[in-house]
Structures are given as C-alpha cells and as structure tokens.
Amino acid sequence: MTEPATRNERKERTRRALLDTALELLTDRGFAGLSLREVTKGAGIVPTAFYRHFASMDDLGIALVEESARTLHETLRAARRAHAASDGDVIPVAVRTLTEHVRAHEAHFRFLARQRYGGTDEVTRAISVELRLFASGLAVDLARYDYLRDWSNDDLHMLAELVVTVMLGTVLDLLDVRGDGEAEARVAATAEKRLRLIGLGVPQWRSTET
Amino acid sequence: MTEPATRNERKERTRRALLDTALELLTDRGFAGLSLREVTKGAGIVPTAFYRHFASMDDLGIALVEESARTLHETLRAARRAHAASDGDVIPVAVRTLTEHVRAHEAHFRFLARQRYGGTDEVTRAISVELRLFASGLAVDLARYDYLRDWSNDDLHMLAELVVTVMLGTVLDLLDVRGDGEAEARVAATAEKRLRLIGLGVPQWRSTET
DNA sequence: TCCGTCAGTGAACGACTGTGCACTCAATAA
DNA sequence: TTATTGAGTGCACAGTCGTTCACTGACGGA
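^ Those are the sequences you sent over. The predicted structure of the assembly is below.
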C-alpha cells in the first residue's frame, strides 16, 4: 500500500495517524495525560508539524469527540434496524447491538465513557453536548412506544438520559471484561436487567406537565 | 490560631494541608493533571518533604478516596436517620439529604464522581471498590422494603448499583449549578423523577435465582 | 541535660514539556 | 516551465516535572 498519493490525501493520512495514535494512547491514560510530543512521535512526525493539523491538543480532543459521536449515532441506527427486523423484545436487541459496536470501536466508546466527567473542560463539555444530542435522538425513538405517547417532553428526556447513562455504564463494564466471553455474557445480562427494571416502571408512570 | 503544638500535630497539619490543597486543585483539573510540586507549594512545604507523608501521588489519591468514602457513608447514615424521622416517601428525603451533604463536602463528591471512570488506574480501582462497598450497604437497607423481600442478592445489588449511579449523576448535576437555587431545585426534581421511575418498576419485578 | 529522631530544606540531576523560527523540497497551479 | 504553496524538519528556548542527596534544627524521650 501507500504510494505517495495526492497532497491532500497525504495530509489526511497524517491527520488520521495523529487521531489513531491518540486513541491508542488513551487505552491506558486519560486524555489529560497524553502529550503533544508522544502523539506526534507515534504518528511519525516531528512535534512542530502537529500544528499543521490541530491548533492544540484540545482541538484534537474535540475532533475525537466528533468522531466518537458519529460511532455512537451509527450504533443507534443499527439498533433501530435490528429492532425493526426482529419484532421481539427491544432490550436484548439493543444490548446485543451495543455490545457488537463497542467491540468494533472500543477506543471511541472508551474515550467517551471515560472522559465524560473526568476530561479537560473543553472535551468534557463537547462530550456532554454530544450525549445530550444523542439522548434527544433516542427520545424520538422512545416517543413511538404506546406507553410513552402522552409523556411530556421533559419526562421523555429524563428517561432517555437515564437510558444513556445506564448504557455508558455498561460500555465500561464491557471494556473491563474484554476477551472473557463468559464475563461478557454476565455484563450483558446485567445490562438487560437494568433496562428491564426501568422499562417496568414506564407503564406505571403518571407524566406531569406536557 | 496555631501555636506550635506537638510534633505529631504539626505533621498531621501538614498532611491535611496537602490533602486540602489537592482537593482545591481538583476543582478545575482531574487528578492526573495535578503535580506533586504544586500540591506541596500550595501546602507551603518544599517538594521533597512530600515523601514524609505519602509514598507517591497515587498514595495521596488513595487517601483522598478513603476520606471521600467516609463522607459518602456519613451521607447514607444521615439519609437513614432522616428517613426514620419522617415516615414519608423515601425519595424526597434521600435527595434532600444528598443535596445537603454534597453542598457541605463538594470537593469529596466531585473527586469521587469525576475520577470514578477517568482517573489513574489505582485511584479508579480504589473508587470502584468503595462504591461497590457503598452499594452493598445500600442493598442492606433496600432489603427491608416489603417489595424487595424476596429479591435475589444479585438483583438487589443490581438495583443498589443502579441507584448509586443515578445518585452520582445527580451529584455532578448539583456541582454544575452551584449558587443557582432555582437550577438546584430543578436538578433535585429530576433526581426524584429518576428514582421514582425506577421505584415504580420494583413492584413489577419478578426476581430470578435466589 | 544530652542525644536521637525526623519534618522540612535547598541545590542539583536528567528527562520531558509546548512552542517559536527559519528551513527544505515535492506537489500543485499558472 | 516556472512560481507558489504548505507539510514536514531541526534547532533552540524556557519551563516543569519527579526524585536523589546531604543538610539543619527543633521537638521529645532518657
């Protein structure tokens, strides 16, 4: 592979190398713990060349958030499709879809879940925005359910954000048991229980203030 | 204040200064982001004297976890007392107790909630242990409720950990709205909704495997 | 009273950090 | 064919970092 290619392609390739190196380093460290110098070293360029691609490390962090958010939305779309094709219980389908996508994009999910609260100001804020956006998307899906037809928007968002938080907790559990199929099954079972418990409360809910 | 005092008292005072400086610096940064040197500077001693009190920064982190965990357990005890004295709905009492204790120990709660996932390996592990312990304590309380009498231990822990996660989310929401009483009331209302929704599912639950 | 303990000092180290600046030289546009 | 652009280079800078070592000097037990 990798003939010279065009100028823009070369630049894009380096940019990717920077992002990939960062994601790789983020396996054992938090975002605040990685330095511009080692990211560039991993990408095979000299430190000062970093600025041809990002204005700062925070800037790179924002790029990672956007990229990870894209993965998140793809996961939601996949879950929608899987649900539509199965006409069974949503919960197992959702958990299975999540598991598969976490395995396929571990770095993205790890980044989001870990830096959600503990990151740099800028990065944490960006993640919080993306997650709220994601929860809104989920809320739209939830609104289609009969039991949720007459819920207020506030309550619907409360539910969606609760589900997102539970899911992100599951993501971290999944990342902790990588390679242990039995443990992974246990994590999935727990995740389903959490969602089922919440789901059982839904029909009992008296929504206020539409 | 502060006559010389005894030798041990002086040492203890410096140790506290180190912990307090760390907690203060943790307001704007993650634990990984603070350095031994600035902690000692804030405490008014020279960097090398740090080692008279802690073997490493991670060691100091562990001390912070233990201290914060103590605050957490005090909060649970206070909630128990408040509940026993009120004979009303648990949820508003629990949320109010939590709010008060968060305000009284912001640094501890911020530390726990932020570093729960995003911290150093050692610190994150220690927090995870303490939170599991805390959830177990909560599970014992929950076991007294009629609806939960015949739940399996597994399911009880699942519920307790779900409640802990929800509460920690609320903690971070509370820390975000410091000083805005109206916003704080909104956060408390949302927290109550989350718990109420989960609580509504409980009587519907069919627990498996005792 | 004397003497050991030990919290705190201060200089020094080697390693690592982000960033400025002048540069090279191949891909591109004219 | 020539001129321009711009990704990547290499050196240098002023800081900060954790940790070492030999030290001081006041407290506290004998």
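The longest helix of chain B spans residues 57-86. The mean pLDDT of chain B is 95.

Shout if you want it in another format.
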